[in-house]
User: What shape does this take?
Amino acid sequence: MLSGLRALDLTSEAGFFCGKLLAYFGIDVIKIEPPGGDPARNIGPFYHDIPDPERSLYWFAFNDSKKGITLNIEAPEGQDIFKKLVAKADFVIESSPAGHMERLGLGYRELSAINPRIIMTSISPFGQTGPYRDYKATDLVAMAMGGIMSLTGVPGGVPCRLSPYHTYCLAGTNAALASMIAYHHRTRSGEGQYIDLSLAECTTREDYYEVPVSWEFGHYNAGRNGDLMFRYNVYTRTIWPCKDGHVTWSLFGGTIGAEENKQLSKFLEEEGLLGKLKDIDWDKFGFDGITQEKIDEIEEPVSELFKRFTKKELEDESLKRGLRISPVSDVKDLYESRQLQFRNYWKTIEHPELSDAVPYPGQLFQSSEMKAEPRHRAPLIGEHNQEIYQGELGFDSNTIAVLKEKGVI
Amino acid sequence: MDKRLPFEGVKVVEWTQAINGPWTGAWFSDFGAEVIKIESTKFPEMGRVSSPYKDNIPGPNRSVTFNTFNTGKKSFTVDLKHPRGRELFMGLVQWADIVLQNQRPGLMKKMGFGYEELRKVKEDIIVMDISIMGQEGPLVGVGGWGSNSMAQSGQFYYYRFPDSGPLSPGFTAVPDAIGPMYAAMAGIAALDYKRQTGKGQYLDISQLEPMVHFLGPAVLNYTMNNRIQPPIGSRDPDAAPHNAFRCRGDDRWCVIAVFTDQEWQAFCRVLGNPEWTQSAKFATLSSRKENESELEERISQWTMQYTPREVMTMMQEAGVPAGVVQNVEDIVDFDPQVKARELLLTLHHEVVGDYLHTRWPFIMSNTPPDIKTGPLMGEHNHYICTEILGMSDEEFVELINEEVVA
Assistant: This one.
């Protein structure tokens, strides 16, 4: 684990996830909020639906396991304090508009002069350079510009956002990994570095099939295909309605699909739905040169089959028969998932102020030696001011009172 | 490159297929690790046999998909079922820091390559078992693809409009792009742990578990408020307008996201402050949310007069977040930002020729990755047998003749 290290987290929504992950890996992450608290504390939903900066589930979910202090880094005195913290820190993560940190005198050049071992990771909409560097982007805009939104929706209809805050989580993941790569380098070279990460680039990289495959080798835009998947020459179904919702299953050819297709045929036969499929030799079945008619012929009885069962029943049949059917789970299904329960996934986090203890999503992976999981609830506004300012920087209570009065902390 | 890359000297043996496993290995190879990919000529891995192929002619060295996920690795074709093949594999385990695999859960153990077995060969080995659901548990038998973890983790549930069924983002099952990052982070943490304690470890990394965190607020809305948060499509509870709008052109769209009052005022100015924008119906965020369909209809009337790029430029210059719903053609041929930041690299492959590759989405000041194309099948057999495993040319030829290395 990466213990004994400290990260200073200046991020807004676009970067919360990065610090959260670093904290799961054992790093002491200090979330720095403007005095009064981070504006993201006003994002709902709220605990028991009572809007309050200390009850935002958005804040809880993306800032757990961090410590929190308030500091106005726009003010010169705040900048001096920040620099003192940088001297003893290992990581700085931030997501302000490109160039903003330099304007404050807190760019990588300044910070690395204070601490050459510092690893600074900047998360911005389009990166620190290039003609769009000053453009604004939210989760939605980055998704659109990165290309992945051109694939989601029905043909001709409005493109659909992937799940909410998806790009922010994706960027946070990339940023945490990049920071850890830089850290690994530092353990051998002693040198820090600067990481310039772009939200839009994250979504372009995420869309692994379009570049280079579809454009360069097929010269087409895959477009929006509803619940179907375009597979170079034909469309196959990804999402299937069932009795109480939807499941996912995909048809494969070759050795990858043969065994499963045989099992599925047996299932169809038992349900009296095999029909024409009885003539298919699954050992020889493949996608090369296949027609859409053939795909439809196969998928029609499968569609009938799935409609006869519930999500749970299909999952059971899947296990019994060696199929790869999974339920399209809502958050309740997810919470009740027997797989996650078995793996002791849910981690109870105490919220003493709410007199409650709540299951949170847990471990990032299992290990024989390490634990990467939530440690404690997100910080209250200024919760660790005393610990950091008095305990570590040695400010006396008089100095702290003056800084408070001036709105620095 | 005269600078040392972060993972230079780190040795990885991987026996992987498809995307999740191979892409994990690529994070290490691109940043300097020596990664040996175990392959089988009899049973080529999925990536090798995935269309499209160069000139539409199938062949294990002609798939672009394979090269995308196996950059900079060395390929070793060896029959692991042969006793001599097994010895070669164990020889590589002894050499390696990390053994990385994403075969069907349980297969490694069945073949005598479980963690305990590998530890006997190398005490401090780091073993990374990568999968969809994890190595143990009631649903391990389902396993599946990225789409299975997308479904299980709740992602599919939210990929939709409130009034539609779940949608599919085409071939791209996003957990396949995300899972490898968690595996790579686990691997780096394990290397650091070894550096500090001298101990190796066993890692069981699923795609499903980290993906659940992506829906954190919605999950807490269930565990704290007992509510199944409904899907909201492209809208956002804290912004209006917040959606994709039809523009001039054939199926062209732009997105606009207005969160603050300041952005709303700027937005109205871009539209020339038409009368409807002054109406009480649209004065505040809450009134805009109440009349959102009408708001969107009125905005579409305006956006349809312009290309998406024109809308984006006008909005961005006024400080309003907006963007083109770019397709792959826009990104490859038109996006000036992609060009300026060299997001797309041209790699050269002996058989496939020159092709585009998307680099990782960040730029590192000291240690940029060194991204090379994927290996030909068995390209490094001789090097691996003689240089790493230390055998003579004669022994190498013998292994080929016995079809152990094939």
